[in-house]
Amino acid sequence: MIRAWLDMSPAGVFLVLIGLYFGMTLLLAWITFCRPFARPVQSLTGVVAPFFSGPAILFALLTGFLAADVAERGRQAYRVVHAEAGELRNIHTLSVASVSDMRTIRTALKTYVTSVVADEWPAMDAMRLSPSTAAAYDNLLREVSIPSIAKESGPAVQSALLTAALRVGTARNDRLALSSDHTNDLKWLVVIALGLITQVAIALVHLEKPRAFFASLMVFSTAAVVTLGILALQEYPFDGAFQVSPEPIKALQSLSE
């Protein structure tokens, strides 16, 4: 349920939140001021304002923790994409500067880059793996592992190529792990539920004053929709309106062979 909501378009994400929180406001108003529930609910009059702070503090704390997780995931995604692009550029530079002809390595590198941009990036958006990109990386690793490189260009050159290629694989694995990470789904459910509970707490404090009842719930609902909506748009770092761009890797397609 949470995953289906997070996979929606920006408009869909905000519309669901608006329907949920403003719908809850109307539901609470109907229960509080309309028959047949008005009399038993009004009998709860007397709940003091400090009662509201308990659910609100929990909602604020968990929203803050969730925002920190989302921001950290975005930073990690940005770092691994640039790390992967940097190591690929290192492989290309070493292959060009080497004494021996490493055209096959550069060809394998461009095949991998093209596969990442054209196949693996859309696959990450759809929460799928890309067998063709995995094969392209294996081929790149195979090319830099050929024993003749050490004989023609020296062990130091091959060691540097292997180190860079392995770091590309590590960065790619981190990127794929981040794209398929759903560990925040339960946190989202708890935060949304706490927001609804906070609305109930606000309603209990304003049972005798309809205008204050509506005003306080409208303000809170607006704040919750804006905050949770913006966070939801950043939940998946490789999908949505604020996704990490593949441009650092895509730029490598222009390198010469």
Automatic annotation (TrEMBL):
<feature type="transmembrane region" description="Helical">
    <location>
        <begin position="51"/>
        <end position="71"/>
    </location>
</feature>
<feature type="transmembrane region" description="Helical">
    <location>
        <begin position="188"/>
        <end position="207"/>
    </location>
</feature>
<feature type="transmembrane region" description="Helical">
    <location>
        <begin position="12"/>
        <end position="31"/>
    </location>
</feature>
<keyword id="KW-0812">Transmembrane</keyword>
<dbReference type="Pfam" id="PF14023">
    <property type="entry name" value="Bestrophin-like"/>
</dbReference>
<keyword id="KW-0472">Membrane</keyword>
<protein>
    <recommendedName>
        <fullName>DUF4239 domain-containing protein</fullName>
    </recommendedName>
</protein>
<keyword id="KW-1133">Transmembrane helix</keyword>
<dbReference type="InterPro" id="IPR025333">
    <property type="entry name" value="DUF4239"/>
</dbReference>
<feature type="transmembrane region" description="Helical">
    <location>
        <begin position="213"/>
        <end position="233"/>
    </location>
</feature>
